[in-house]
Amino acid sequence: MSRILVIGCGGVASVAIQKCCQNEAVFTEMCIASRTKAKCDALKEKLEGKTAVKITTAQVDADHPEEVAALIREYEPKAVLNLALPYQDLAIMEACLECGVHYIDSANYEPEDTDDPKWREIYEKRCREKGFSAYFDYSWQWEYNEKFREKNLTALLGSGFDPGVTSVFTAYAMKHYFDEIHTIDILDCNGGDHGYPFATNFNPEINLREVSANGSYWEDGHWVETEPMEIKRTYNFPQVGQKEMYLLHHEEIESLAEHVPGVKRIRFFMTFGESYLTHMKCLENVGMLSTSPVAYEGKEIVPIQFLKALLPDPATLGPRTKGKTNIGCIYTGVKDGQERTIYIYNVCDHEACYREVGSQAISYTTGVPAMIGTALVALGIWNKRGTVNLEELDPDPFMDMLNQYGLPWVVEENPDTVG
Ligand code: NDP
Fold it and tell me: Who's near 262: CB < 8 A, 6+ residues apart?
């Protein structure tokens, strides 16, 4: 029924593509395009004979909207699923607008060069006005709202797990469990062990930038910023056990603050082990997390990109990772005049993911919702136009597909809260 173009062929894309191939009723043809075409060809070969979806591959540098637009014109997809890096979001959105196709991504736009003076000026103004200093915020993509609406197109923003499923859980809680939500705690727990002293579960550059930045949360209508890792809590996660977790800034806090009427506080916590934190601090202290180029033996190198080359490729962690993830949201609020607390979460097993698609659970928990969001847009079931965050849409079809495609969820009444 639908022909789609997937851009990027890393850990997340590889899962999303395999999941599209399990959904042949929706996806009939697919072009996998990325910077390194060999990776697309290898995945195509792996899937040959296992799916009825007709797969082609292409090379594209998605930093350039005109290259993406040329590919869209040639392939004529119904939608583009962007699973490259956040750096490419705006270029791919531009190309989709120009060619009149829907757009789906899994991460908020972030610039590659945070020293660019033009970008920095806008960033510093936003830091002062909004009160959080993360390098990413939705203003860049929300700016396209009218343009997508005028062209009767959807740009679905953040169709991964967090953001993505956490946004859909929130819409589900609003629809079925609350008249008003007062607090949201998003808890992202990875209880998996890959056996390396230090590795990141998804793109190291994006992951380390996120974790080494200041934390922040939304309270009473404004942002409260913290030092990196300043706020620590312990939580006993169902099927994983007791873990230490730290408050981080996270992109869905910004969109949920906008779209959940009456919400008083939104926080995001992620679990980290001691070894991960010690390595990260050390790498940060010696300058290895820097995104500014340095001169080395007559060449310019970007320290964090060099570090990425040294670290294990997240796509290779699959066969080594054991244990489970538990990602979900605890909501407090009011229903029919009564106070209520619920916890909606998914537990995902690293080894089961590897058996199914050859990837660990982090790529799996992002790739499955990327496929579901794309399917719902392609089918026209999700047809709100403009730039759309997932909490703005009917959660029920998405929740059903989570159960169907490998991410079953649980609603627990009266769970332990975070404090
Ligand atoms: P990877 O680094 O594994 O893959 C990125 C892919 O994008 C690679 O195939 C890479 O190509 C390609 N790429 C990079 N730059 C370009 C370019 N200029 N043009 C074309 N292709 C390009 O990343 P992940 O799969 O781990 O992450 C993919 C996305 O998912 C990221 O945006 C990440 O932030 C997001 N994410 C979202 C989560 C969520 O829950 N919402 C959770 C985890 C990740 P090459 O092979 O040449 O390097």
Answer: 180, 181, 182
Residue pair 259/391 in contact by the 8 Å Cβ criterion: yes
Distance CA 324, CA 407 (A): 12
Domain ranges across the chain: 165-356
Residue 162 alpha carbon, nearest atom of ligand 1:
40
pLDDT at res. 115: 86
**How open is the CA angle 54-60-63, to the nearest 5 degrees?**
140
Segment 301-312, tens digit of pLDDT: 999 999 999 999
Cβ atoms of residues 381 and 154 within 8 Å: no
Name the amino acid, one letter, at 175: K
Q: Other C-beta atoms within 10 Å of 327: how many?
A: 25
Q: What is the C-alpha separation between 111 and 135, in angstroms, rounded?
A: 8
d(CA 348, CA 364): 9
Q: Any idea which architecture 165-356 has in CATH?
A: 2-Layer Sandwich (3.30)
Determine the Cα–Cα distance for residues 369 and 384; give it in Å rounded to an integer. 18
Q: What angle do CA 132, 137, 138 make, to 5 degrees?
A: 135
Q: Is the peptide bond before 65 cis (omega within 30 degrees of 0)?
A: no
pLDDT tens column, 103-141? 999 999 999 888 899 999 999 999 999 999 999 999 999
Using only C-alpha atoms, what is the Rg of the chain? 20
- 334 SS3 class: strand
Give the residue whose CA is nearest to atom 4 of ligand 1.
10
- Cβ–ligand 1 distance for 60 under 6 Å, the answer yes
> What is the CA(10)–ligand 1 centre distance, in A?
6
160 within ligand 1 shell (Cβ under 6 A) = yes
Report how far residue 283's alpha carbon sits from residue 286's, in angstroms, rounded to the nearest whole number: 5
In the predicted model, residues of the chain with pLDDT beneath 70 are: none
**How many whole angstroms separate alpha carbon 126 and alpha carbon 105?**
23
Q: What is the pLDDT of residue 7?
A: 98
Longest CA pairwise span in the chain (Å): 69
Q: Name the 3-class secondary structure at 36.
A: coil
Reference 276, options 207, 375, 188; nearest CA is 207
CB atoms within 10 A of CB 357: 22
Task: Give the whole-angstrom CA distance, residue 52 versus residue 35.
Answer: 25
Q: Provide the pLDDT for residue 202.
A: 82
Q: Three-class SS of residue 381?
A: coil
Cα(19) to ligand 1 centroid in Å equals 17
